[in-house]
Amino acid sequence: MAQLAMAKIEKVEAVGDLNLKIKFKKQGVREIDLTGFIARLPQLRSLLDPNVFKKAKVIDWGAAIGWPGDLDVGASTLWRLALEQNPFGNVDFRHWQVTVKLSNNEAAEVLGCSLGTVKNYRTSAEIPTAVGIACRAMMHDPIVLAAHLRPRRPAGRPVMHAARRKAS
To answer: If you count Cβ atoms within 10 Å of the first and of the last residue's Cβ in the chain, which end, N or C, has fewer?
Structure first.
């Protein structure tokens, strides 16, 4: 994953209703839909006015985007929104699984789906938005994964307990 703390903005343009086209330094151009973000933060409601929203500009040497009325959103927050709004595909799923070090069975268990579904997600199946959100959350916050993971024992012969060995 890209470093969130290192995000810097070079250029911004308001496009569409509540979308920003942002050029991030070293990370390319992303279009971000701020509809949900603005809806969840009452202090940003004035951005619903198209005349205010279109006045977006880069501030603080690329550390944020600002609007009239002392409104701003940090570059790291905007970069995270951009990453979250990217579609989560099969390559992303495989990367997630390798990064968090889960077997197919463990991935199925932690996601609450079948082993066959995990195998399909790894190759060709469309991945539901909720699964992508869950995978990203587990990758960004190891506590989320740890709270739901029940590790599997490695395959092979069963381990004989000491009490059973004495009886043999």
So the answer is: C
